[in-house]
């Protein structure tokens, strides 16, 4: 095989970093192989099929590699209107709101299925019009739902689970991929492979001039946040997370000088000033401090005036790391607090202590951190009680007191049940989910289950959320979000995740938490009064 066409399947506009690393990996080992990158996210829906035809006809690829990044089975955070419609449908007391929500829900289900079927049509287009080309498909979405999706793809399509560098190289060279993570359908038979050892990242780099030559659409990302990977793998066991399944639990590090070389290339050649570290966690543990510290020190020493962000556990931030983060240009952050109850966190295997999370926020504040923080909550997680919900409200107040209320934006999430996670296995064992269920099949009943918000707390939480979402006065902080959480800093309202920013701008998460506190304390007062009255009635008078 002498040519590869990479097709980044449509999702929200985000820099296709996985494909860029793949292309560079192959180029360094097989410079004679021609490569081309096509980003379908940059085309209107009606033009995408023709864009594939044109690219394949002009390039004549021997191998077509599709990258499927996202399948949103159901948006579990408040920024997406689908969550508000679902809550109105299931919990609203006003029948008119329930009718409106049901109509909107049907529209969203149509868009959901239409999007999946449309994406599945692209490999079939290649099979029909370019039958000699070998088809491969990978990416986070495919890895998560490979068992369901492989049935819908052309026979013989090679599905890659997790990383693809070594597997694609072997296919190009005509070697067996039996010791790689793959899935193939041959008639009614499904065949899978098991990876012997994951790829090392010592030589993972980006040759930006070469990348520019094979990615004609690169100009669409000039001035926007660019993803940079510093490591792969996640050592944690968070019950709901797919990262360990996709990337493995063994953490593999890229040399800091290579990471900063990537940043420097984009900085000097594309004029990039905003970066997002795409790791599962930028600081994966104490063993990651040397690498992370050297990366930030090199950014400072090379005088790269950038703004960067990523997923960071503030529980792992030390005073020294905090100072270095601020000096190197850390921007706005997302912090997955999940719950304000240590018992709930322990049950989810989150692997951090709340006191440490608060300490990290304190160290950032002392170091002069001026960014904003999204504080992600997953309400009604397993083992949740009314008391633990009140603890979550208190946790928000603690973080807000440390960083300043104007800089802390709680965002209400709900656990989405995903295949190949500990949470899914638990719920199967408990009978909450039925064996053989299809995680991609959405119905009113399955949505209610897959968006984890079980009784008896579901109605209380829904009441608080709906009360907050109905307020349309917007955020208490009118300043525009900056940094890696926004995709086009110069244009208000244009963000890497337009749904996410909806919840931020309205600051409805704060209202939801405070409404929840009000409801729970009112319930507790009523219960206390009832107990007191019953005690008074039953106590004999002497």
TrEMBL record:
Domain Radical SAM core, residue spans: 220-453
Gene Ontology MF, one: catalytic activity
Feature: compositional bias, Polar residues: 532-542
Ranges in a coiled coil: none
Cross-referenced Pfam families: Radical_SAM
Positions of region (Disordered): 523-542
UniProt cross-references to InterPro entries, sorted A to Z: BchE-like, Elp3/MiaA/NifB-like_rSAM, rSAM, rSAM_horseshoe, rSAM_sf
Name of the protein in its database record: Radical SAM superfamily protein
PANTHER family assigned to the protein according to its UniProt record, in alphabetical order: ANAEROBIC MAGNESIUM-PROTOPORPHYRIN IX MONOMETHYL ESTER CYCLASE-RELATED, SLR0320 PROTEIN
Entry keyword set: Iron, Iron-sulfur, Metal-binding, S-adenosyl-L-methionine
PROSITE patterns in the record: RADICAL_SAM
GO cellular component: cytosol
Cofactor(s) needed for function: [4Fe-4S] cluster
